[in-house]
Fold:
Amino acid sequence: MNGKVGIGLRRDISKEILESTVLKPNFLEFAPENWMGMGGYWNRIRKEAVEKYPVTCHGLSLSLGSPEELDWDFIRELKVFLDENQSSIFSEHLSYTKSRNAHLYDLLPIPFRKDAVDHVVDRIKRVQDFLERPLAIENVSYYTPVAAEMTEIDFVNEIVEKAGCKLLLDVNNVYVNAFNHKYDAREFIGKLPLDRVAYIHMAGHEQVAPDLIIDTHGQPIIDPVYELFEWTIQKMDPVPVLLERDYNFNEIEQLQSELDHLKSIIKTHWKVTYESPEGKTSSAEPSGVHMATENKDIT
Amino acid sequence: MKLHKDTEKIQNLLGDYCRTGVEQDIPGITPGRVHHYRRLVYNVVRDTMDTAFPITLAALGEERWDMLVQDFFSGEQPQTPQIWKLPFEFYQYHANQETGTRIEKPYLDDLLYFEWIEIEIHTMPDRPFPDFSQTGNIFKDRLAFNPEYEIVRLEYPVHMHSAENTSELKGDYFVLVFRSPETGNVQFLNLSGLNTYILTRLVDERIALNDLKGDIAHVAGIESEKYLDDALSAFIGDLIEKKLILGFAKKTN
Ligand SMILES: [Fe+2]
Structure:
């Protein structure tokens, strides 16, 4: 999986993904919440997808940063889902999606504070223990800090360090945050523990004001984000790379060209080969990968 | 808990704002930015409801519909981590609040439920299918049913008429909602009270049609056996064609 390029399995493009005439990812990312406990048509699609492609899982509702207790019934179901789908990576957001026992279905920024660090670290550890696999936590995009008492980079780094977890580095999110909060994206990435990165996200975004970008996942990746990606991967060992796209699926060819663009950058800097046809039948492991980012290390 | 009370309070202020849209005094935020969170959060919920309930949205109109979504999202604490299940909580909330009565749309509960049940039947976990054979006699042999169905009872016939026209038609209506074993698509079939009775007893008591014929004739006041046989043949034949009946149950079932 390391160095391979995947795409999120969204219902709108599931047919194209399974037919793989135009769209040919190396692996698929599932949002467990969108597939758990489901039968019928979508369950058949999920099973077909799992048979055809290697899978990673990217959670939405764990709400690592929430004040209230974790939802253990949900986490139990999640574990079954991860096992059933042979998910090689499980990642979640460094954010909160629940407040006063109400789900909000979007990612809210956790205050960058010491007590929040300790709180989140404790929760990540408990989730990792229960799931019996490391969690890769994602740096999220945010549009305003909230009552911060420390910098974002210190907040992220302290959590990763103390929790002993992995990092899902969303390169687009770093770009978005650097733009929105006026800092240097490369400097930020340079300070991250890149040996802890287990997974990379790439995505498009939308600028809504002269000083504000919203992380929409609805547009193609822009060149400066590709450039930031290229700069980043030279500093780290190969990991799986995911193209995130949540809507605007009218141009399937264009999605494939984004996957191809990512592959061409990766091939320049990481020792990876892309066989055809892709998927579970091909030998997908590049040689010379770093132990910390190997597949087996994160299952 | 490691989280300090004031951090928890700040997090909840942002959460409250996103849920209710009522501005809160949240410390340490960049001016002019926080409203994007309310917008993004609310859009996700509103889109989910629009997609789940297109008929109700059209029947109530944009403004009233938006009030219902706002009311639900600020008044309820959404419990499901899986947003595709949220429309059921929306239905439950408005049924409990008796919103339909309040806004003088007595059909509201039925219409919301009718739209939800399509999602539910389409996505519910697979149920175990019985063993069955293709050959048998519809009267003498037990029928093998597709287990993926529900019979919905409605007070307002929102499955047959446009919602606004159902207010005067209060009664007892039954709809068979089932998942096609082949395509996974959801199909609807209007059922008479008598057909509902027949179907329910066949499934619940696992008996053959012949064992039920006497009761059916009695309940329906049918004297002609030929008439009854023809009517039953047509009804069962229709269910076989629609794949609600798969075939004939094997003895072991
Ligand atoms: Fe991401």
Q: What stands out?
A: Residues 5-284 of chain A form a domain with the TIM Barrel fold (CATH 3.20.20.150). The two ends of chain A are 12 Å apart (CA to CA).
